[in-house]
Design a protein that fits this description.
Length: about 325
């Protein structure tokens, strides 16, 4: 016969274990409307569901409405890829009021912007990795519509980077060097100009950002302005349409974090710790986005492919016990 105290202890242990397994509960994850964020949301769903026994659900999201909803309504629980420059005041208020928690860096390098040239050009002439080299060899970048003018491909009209790119074009005296600032018309127009040049091994010089699929497909070199980063001047002048005296500065990295509600951090500390650890380099994300584009994959399919084929990345984010659970789930894909 078992003693009453032993039986009570067994029931207590079972109840405690059951609570620990279910304490993560329902988790809402913002599925943002761009590929890297949607991919990351689906990776989080898979890992939280199968590794931490959460009941994870994806909900549509976007930068401003998601951050506002997290502060005012406590929903969703997680925004996997928040470009915080765009909502810095909101995020700071949410943290100060103890409604939001800043977890890990979604992109360890931060969002990256710059002026770029194809790697094959730099391989032939290393000076083209610098703005001085670009200016010196301006005639090597002919405008397709007028070879007497050099071409610099800027940001599409209406984008924030149109302002910063235009101000840096002025600060670098590129017009005086013979360049024309070309509006590509759209993201497709900009990427199309780069991909056409690359496929034909032709010159190209222009603005681009990372992580993006195209930089995963086509190795590019970011041009060094020789100035370093003056973040204060960038924020106060370069990024503003009213900048009257733009000075040369490299683009500062854009902080990209995973943001959660403070309630989620308290309710599910182990799952929250995962969001602190989960991070991609831009090089990794560029490659993953290129795979998504080549395979016309949505976020869910890309996440499954990632879990199947990139254990060397995701296994570093979790404990051995959680990894064992994820391995079983992957075997069932």
């Amino acid at each position: 016969m078992y003693s009453k105290s032993l039986i009570a202890g067994v029931f207590t242990l079972a109840a405690t274990s059951s609570f620990a397994a279910s304490s993560c509960g329902k988790v809402e994850i913002a599925d943002m409307n761009w590929n890297s964020a949607s991919f990351m949301a689906n990776v989080d769903k898979f890992i939280l569901d199968h590794g931490y026994d959460c009941d994870a659900e994806l909900v549509p999201g976007d930068t401003m409405p998601t951050s506002t909803s997290m502060i005012e309504k406590g929903q969703p629980d997680i925004a996997p890829e928040m470009w915080t420059n765009a909502v810095s005041e909101l995020i700071e208020r949410g943290v100060k009021e103890k409604r939001l928690s800043i977890a890990g860096k979604s992109l360890s390098d931060g969002g990256e912007e710059g002026f770029w040239v194809p790697k094959y050009m730099v391989d032939k002439d290393p000076s083209l990795a610098t703005i001085q080299g670009i200016i010196k060899h301006a005639k090597e970048f002919p405008n397709p519509e007028n070879s007497a003018i050099s071409a610099f491909y800027g940001c599409p009209a209406g984008w924030g980077c149109q302002i910063s790119g235009g101000n840096l074009f002025t600060a670098l005296n590129l017009k005086e060097a013979g360049f024309e600032l070309i509006d590509p018309g759209s993201a497709a127009g900009l990427s199309g100009s780069l991909s056409r040049a690359y496929e034909r091994q032709q010159p190209w010089f222009g603005y681009y950002w990372a992580p993006t699929a195209i930089l995963g497909k086509y190795p590019m070199v970011k041009v060094d302005f020789g100035s370093g980063v003056d973040k204060e001047h960038y924020m106060k002048c370069i990024s503003n349409n009213s900048c009257l005296d733009p000075k040369v500065t490299m683009y500062p990295p854009s902080p990209v974090y995973s943001i959660t509600t403070t309630e989620f951090e308290k309710r599910a500390p182990q799952a929250y710790a995962y969001t602190v650890n989960r991070s991609f380099t831009n090089a990794q994300m560029n490659t993953l986005l290129a795979w998504m584009e080549d395979n016309q994959a949505d976020g869910e399919y890309a996440a499954e492919n990632f879990m199947l084929n990139h254990e060397e990345i995701w296994s570093k984010w979790v404990s051995n016990d959680v990894k064992a659970k994820l391995d079983k789930a992957i075997d069932n894909l």
